[in-house]
Amino acid sequence: MKQLEQTIQQILTTCPCQQALLIRHLPSGRQFALNPDQVFPAASMIKLPIMYEVMRQASQGRLALEELLEVTEAVRVGGAGILQELRPGIALTVQELVTLMIVISDNTATNLLLNRIGLAAVNSTAEQLGLTNTVLRRRMMDFTAARAGQENHTSVADIAKLLEIMYQQTTLPPEYGELMLNILKRQQIRDKLPFYLPEDIAIAHKTGTLDGVEHDAGILFSAGGPYLISVMTADLPVNYQGLQLVAQIGRAIFEYSHTPSARANC
């Protein structure tokens, strides 16, 4: 992977910002990383451990994926998502809410799920999984809590570890890992890792965005893959620079994975 590492190091020089990444070829275990344990504002990456906790509780019979939750006026929040635009009082299943939380990063869906499973449960499970830099301190769009220092945090190493747990399907019954990956593959926000990729290339991923922050992490299923990719940026002069940085990294990994040398070395 030396050639790929050199290419990505050159890409990283184009953006004056905080940067961290971890790239691992899952079949061989070969990887390289930059600042893997640096703590970043999680943005919507925190929705990955939330999804995992929902599935964990479902696997234990503590909730049902078919259970209906009502979208009340009190729970609706702004930012990303569609539920804020719909009439209050509609009800969706837990699985539908997880899907909205991931594929369009719906904040109202996220808060509904958090009301059901509890913030403490997400943090407890993250700790048990060894996600040492991940903490959920507030609900989505709670700017008062954020200004008070109650920000959600994570790292590229933690997110990579969680994605690999989902992929390996060793901690939960396999059907839950498969369901999480299938939802991640239906991601509709494609302005980062998959931006330059052909439409038919599968990538199971989740993005995160705040002012000055752009993240993306997932599993790229390509000819030489699958590749586990986790990229985070902060202190961006303008967010567009982060979008393009991550997009170019995605393209570099895809192109490398299709070279004969990459296949021979994997």
UniProtKB/TrEMBL annotation:
Gene Ontology MF terms: beta-lactamase activity
Domain of life: Bacteria
Domain Beta-lactamase class A catalytic: 22-233
InterPro entries attached to this UniProt entry: Beta-lactam/transpept-like, Beta-lactam_cat, Beta-lactam_class-A
GO BP terms, alphabetized: beta-lactam antibiotic catabolic process; response to antibiotic
Recorded coiled-coil stretches: none
SUPFAM superfamilies: beta-lactamase/transpeptidase-like
Pfam families in the cross-refs: Beta-lactamase2 (PF13354)
Family annotation (PANTHER family): BETA-LACTAMASE, BETA-LACTAMASE-TYPE TRANSPEPTIDASE FOLD CONTAINING PROTEIN
Name of the protein in question: Beta-lactamase class A
Organism field: Propionispora vibrioides
